[in-house]
Amino acid sequence: MEDSYVIVGGKPLKGEIKVSGAKNIALKVIIAALLFDGKVVLKNIPKIKDVEDLIELLVNIGALAKFVDTNIVEIDRNGIKTNKIDLLHASKIRASYLLFAPLLHLFQKAQIPNPGGCRLGARSIDRTIVGMKSLGVSLSYDSETGYYESSLEKKPEGNFKFTKPSHTGTELMIMLAVFAGGTVIIENAAQEPEIDDLIKFLNEGGAKISRNLSTITIEGVDSLKQTESFSISGDKIEGATFATLAIATRGEVIISNLPKNYLFSFNEKLIKAGAGVEDLADGQWRYFYKDMIGVDIETAPYPGFVTDWQPLFAVLMTQATGKSEIHERIFENRFSYVSELRKLGAKIEFIEKNIENPNDFYHFNYDSTKQYNQIIEVTGPQSLHGGVLEVSDLRAGATLAIAALIANGQSYVKGVDHIDRGYENFSEKVIKIGGDIKRI
Fold it and tell me: Which of 208, 231, 254 is the last residue of a domain?
């Protein structure tokens, strides 16, 4: 039972939680720090497995990268000795392909493996590859080695419009264009607030980047240098996780360190369901139980209901009255948790609907010859019982831990190293608000 949680659920959780820095900002600014001359200091960086793996990867290529204090990381690209990323290190983390930008700027050539991370379906980077080529990057993929071979002979130039928004793709295009030989315009860019943190970080170092909704304009500069340390924003996924935990266990939690716009669409659905949501101002939120009714959601790029929230909402809806439909539009294979929730007594069924123009409706590379399960129907309220659960990916892991904390009796959650990838001190924070959880 190594690397498992033993959880005794069935009691309300109450208290206060300060969320950690956002994983999806931390990884990007650490890589973007390699675009800077000299040392870069980053604050509020969560000490999670994905960050530790990325730091190990950077040290492997010769960079200085280390935690120098609690949640403070120093990065210095001086010493990077190779433009090839090790296959094993890169396989651990999907964000590794963002290294195209600093390595192409440093060496004019880069060898990057196909990205790793959670296996949530066909997470192709084809759209991003098209974007890189539009700025002058030459690229080819060797299916035998699993590596992309790339080169950039002159300063990037050109414009690009994404056919469908890509969060990480937008960030890579920004990093590539920061040293452009003129002005680069990126259209239909992703609008996630985490991207604004990246833009702010680069601009504080001397970049010239502006955004108007889904259009980003980059005026090329010659170099970047940090003058003051940079602190990243809180994690909206962790915030939603503890909000769900409070409401689903019939408790009450005050969550801090979350800007208002980060949770807008999540809070909107909670309020529609009847759950207790109160804005306490200055990044503080109060979440508490009230009788809920089932509501439907469709995942969508920000400012819509983001895909990382849907597993949380599914377990929450097991405690609401009526039926709820959850339609996953961003990724395929995002319902790995369903069979595990059923072990605890959850009533969840896959359903089908006729979708006109599925190629346009879904954001993954839709294949009309394949069978997809993209919609579930949750029936509640349901009294959950204990069980033995297996975690298959990061967000499913947090969802299953929440389910076990709702359930009456004892549960075992196996494979919790997945949770370590994105949550800092998860079990300690649960214990702080009264949860009975122990790692074994």
Answer: 231
